[in-house]
Amino acid sequence: MKKIFLVAAMAAVVLTSVNAQNKYKPENMSFSTELNYSPGGATTDGQFSLPDYGAKVRLHLNEKMAVRLKLGLNTSTDKDVTYYESPTDQKEYERNSKESITTFSIMPGFEYHFTKYERISPYVGGEIGLLTSTAKTKTDNTENDDKTETKRPGLGFGVNVFTGVDVYLCKGLYLGFELGLGYDSMNYKRGTTTTVSGSTTTKTDGTTSNLQSRFGFHATPSLRVGWNF
């Protein structure tokens, strides 16, 4: 958080030396691309396109309107180790469990920019898109070679309204921040479970499916670095 505030302060210093004769913002029918990084912070459910890393491409129709395509990737992993005593030999062994969820999003959207300032471009907009996810659970132990792996695919959609600002450091280079209000829904299928016991491998269909829905305000301090071309 401190690093982001420092970057914002540096951008503000640059703004004090602005030359009003220069044009820093993108021209009509020009493209811009950016990379996003979110170090974490105050956030609730509802952010689906850029929880960790992301990228975005924009086509600036004119100085006030732009269409965008945003890609997002989120991977979370939870590992647990349980220690237990075997009733066979009275020795202690470990049972390892690993759960991971990987979500990918593709979100087309629209932005409306306010053109009052030369180097600062506040905007509002909305986006709607597709979400895909894979949930995996793996378990094994140190007592024998038995293993279990469950895979569950998910498919859903997301809707987001947002506001943000681009701060142009020089012509073609900017920093940005964004926050918004979002809803997403993910439908996880039954999936499959693969069990390995000794030399025997069995594969069965999952026993549950579920629908997850989230709605919330997100204000994660995300750093966006972009280029116009």
UniProtKB/TrEMBL annotation:
Taxonomy, superkingdom: Bacteria
Residue stretches making up the Outer membrane protein beta-barrel domain: 9-200
Pfam family membership, one: OMP_b-brl
Signal peptide: 1-20
Keyword annotations from UniProtKB, A to Z: Signal
Protein name: Outer membrane protein beta-barrel domain-containing protein
Biological source species: Barnesiella intestinihominis YIT 11860
